[in-house]
């Protein structure tokens, strides 16, 4: 939606650019709840993925939540409402957990959800000077978590304020090292424009494949993006990897990581409780999941894996170390509800890193 841009109350751009930028064309608020199977059975679309819904369906699901909440004595609140979106989760994780300076490029509205997004991200140290204020509603998403921690997402982006491709400037990217992007057909024009300008500014690109539905339904433009040679790092989970190679004789994770590595310097396929497989050049590594905890909520697991992996790349660590830190950070977020890591779970992550001899962020060192 090409909403009118308003004078922003956010700070002007800092002279020193964030090391990592996230492109999320629409600010997004997640409503995360643990629910019983019967609610998931009522909702259209496949369980476990992400499918766009209209505002009426989003409001219907939110109303239905009250009668389908799973009792969880450990959770102080049955529904967590928080700044969300895959990219926001990743850059917030980098800032809070690893103290890598990060910022976000996108648009928000001056409504309840927009103010919540800004407050949450800014209070966690994310640079919001590239976030544009526009007239209209802020995007929302319902994240439904089942009894075993799997999450089903229903985002509502209709009529939400959105950054447009022609609003991007070189100044948005100058001085940064990485741009984090999530594949989405609704944002394809702005994604292409951001990648083009970022590459002109010497910024490396990290792409997440988003969901198996997105890969299945919009495979052709995704392949064009990968084949452009502009994507330096690509993350896929196991379901997305299968969709990417659907119809091929061999569609296992090894084949998928090999396919992605033909087009990207670094290719990573995450395998949930089975860890991950990654390739860089001729090197292939397999790293087990860390922690061995039953997931309370898988929301944000891939996003926080990316936070840890990118921290490793920024620090110049080996492929195996990047994967191990990604496994630690991905394991930290699944221990509680929502895509934001709690202070206790960050401490759990640092302990895991220490035990495995992985380089801790500088602020953790005595």
Automatic annotation (TrEMBL):
One of its GO terms (molecular function) is kinase activity. InterPro entries: Carb_kinase_PfkB-like, PfkB_dom, Ribokinase-like. Keywords: Kinase, Transferase. Residues 73-339 form the Carbohydrate kinase PfkB domain. Pfam families: PfkB. It comes from the Eukaryota. Belongs to the carbohydrate kinase PfkB family. This is Carbohydrate kinase PfkB domain-containing protein. It comes from Protea cynaroides.
């Amino acid at each position: 939606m090409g909403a009118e841009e308003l004078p922003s109350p956010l700070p002007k751009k800092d002279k020193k650019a964030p090391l990592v930028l996230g492109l999320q064309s629409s600010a997004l608020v997640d409503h995360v709840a643990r629910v019983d199977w019967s609610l998931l059975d009522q909702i259209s679309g496949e369980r476990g993925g992400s499918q766009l819904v209209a505002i009426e369906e989003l409001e219907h699901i939110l109303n239905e939540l009250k009668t389908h909440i799973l009792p969880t004595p450990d959770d102080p609140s049955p529904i967590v409402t928080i700044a969300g979106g895959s990219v926001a989760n990743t850059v917030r994780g980098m800032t809070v957990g690893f103290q890598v300076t990060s910022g976000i490029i996108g648009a928000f509205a001056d409504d309840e959800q927009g103010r919540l997004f800004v407050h949450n991200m800014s209070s966690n140290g994310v640079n919001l000077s590239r976030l544009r204020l526009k007239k209209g509603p802020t995007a929302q998403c319902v994240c439904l978590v089942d009894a075993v921690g799997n999450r089903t997402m229903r985002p509502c982006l209709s009529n939400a304020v959105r950054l447009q491709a022609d609003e991007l400037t070189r100044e948005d990217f100058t001085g940064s090292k990485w741009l984090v992007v999530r594949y989405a057909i609704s944002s394809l024009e702005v994604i292409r424009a951001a990648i083009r300008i970022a590459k002109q500014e010497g910024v490396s690109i990290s792409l997440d494949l988003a969901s198996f539905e997105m890969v299945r339904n919009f495979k052709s433009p995704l392949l064009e993006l990968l084949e452009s040679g502009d994507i330096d790092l690509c993350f896929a989970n196991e379901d997305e990897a299968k969709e990417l190679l659907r119809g091929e004789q061999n569609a296992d994770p090894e084949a998928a990581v090999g396919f992605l590595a033909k087009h990207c310097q670094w290719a990573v396929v995450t395998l949930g409780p089975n860890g991950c497989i990654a390739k860089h050049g001729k090197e292939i590594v397999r790293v087990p999941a860390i922690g061995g905890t039953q997931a309370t909520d898988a929301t944000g697991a891939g996003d926080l894996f990316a936070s840890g992996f990118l921290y490793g790349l920024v620090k110049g660590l080996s492929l195996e170390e990047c994967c191990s830190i990604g496994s630690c950070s991905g394991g930290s977020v699944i221990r509680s509800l929502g895509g934001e890591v709690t202070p206790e779970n960050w401490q759990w992550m640092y302990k895991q890193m220490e035990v495995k001899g992985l380089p801790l962020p500088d602020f953790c060192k005595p």
